[in-house]
Design a protein that fits this description.
Radius of gyration: 20 Å
Number of strands: 2
Distance between the termini: 22 Å
Helix content: 55-70%
Shape: elongated
Largest sheet: 2 strands, antiparallel
Number of domains: 1
Order of helices and strands: HHEEH
Length: 106
Amino acid sequence: MAGKDVTEARHAWEAACLAWSQDTLDQIEETMRLGEVMMYAATDLICALEVDSDRYRHLRNRDAGPPNYTPPGLFIGQVPENLILTEEDADAAIDAALSQGGRGDG
């Protein structure tokens, strides 16, 4: 994923909010700079959350098989090697599927 992940973006947003809350408003240039930092941090967080929500919708809305079939759950692995994939591997696989078929929102 290009940009920040959700955790990194959330930390940047929280740091920007803290700095803004401690501003004494006596230097207009500094107040404006802090506001700009908050704006960029909020934008990064929104973008990171959109990527995560796209991943979720892709998994939630995937074709689970024929009617009346209830899959046993989500297994992230490779068959026949039966390797368990890491979060990064899963994210990469989901991102690759999304790039082939849209946002996964039906």
